[in-house]
Specification:
98 residues, Histone, subunit A, two-stranded antiparallel sheet, mainly alpha
């Protein structure tokens, strides 16, 4: 099912892409080929295959949370450009409405 030039231009507009004439022609062919392949996949019998969210089993790869000594505050804040007591002092990133 080949895409028309107008459909490719519409897709590019939706994606906010400025395409050259050569790119429109190239994407017309490439997107059409992708849609043709998707149509082939739609014809496959998948009744015996259960729906899955992942094809491989997921495992937690995080290490155990263990208590360990931290750096002294003076070492951590030694090069801080601005500090208040034992904290970094940074400018606000969210403006407060009047």
């Amino acid at each position: 099912m080949p895409l028309t030039r107008q459909e490719v231009e519409h897709i590019a507009e939706l994606a906010k892409l400025a395409l050259s004439q050569e790119e429109i022609e190239r994407f017309q062919e490439q997107l059409s080929a992708i849609l043709d392949y998707a149509a082939v996949l739609q014809r496959l019998d998948t009744e015996a295959i259960p729906p899955t969210a992942q094809v491989i089993e997921l495992k937690n790869v995080m290490r155990a949370d263990e208590v360990s000594p931290s750096l002294p505050v003076e070492d951590v804040l030694g090069n801080a450009p601005s500090r208040r007591d034992s904290y970094f002092c940074v400018p606000p990133v969210i403006e407060v409405a009047p």
